[in-house]
Amino acid sequence: MSKTEKLFTVAGTAKNPNGTVKARFANDLVARIKILNKAGCTDINLIELPKAMTKLEALQHLTQVGITEGDAGFAVANKLAEKAKVAKKGEVKVKAVKAPGKTAEAVASAAVKTAAKTKAVKATVPADAVESTNA
After folding, report:
1. pTM as predicted
2. For site-directed labelling of 38, which of 19, 68, 111, 126 has its Cα 20 to 30 A away?
């Protein structure tokens, strides 16, 4: 988790009054059921998770538990695909490339020469920036 993600202890599905089925997340099972009933939701299917989980983890758990049939399964699969896409979007591929032109030794040598010209005795070059010729 690169940034702080909210954790949930309850997850499942519920059908809205307009007929759409959505994945639902909460931290209090009883309170969430009351809220969904008051809002007119039907087919409420919420479960307590074995531990606090992110939405992505909770959706994966719902899939493993077997909420994969009908509209509820479709809602879970769609939300899982959405969350997986967002999670993958945060990943960055890094490829190390050697800088063109000067080598680390040439840069260090130039720094020492510049320091000598300005009568500065101190030239700081990180140890890992200089390539060793002793192999």
Report:
1. 0.59
2. 68
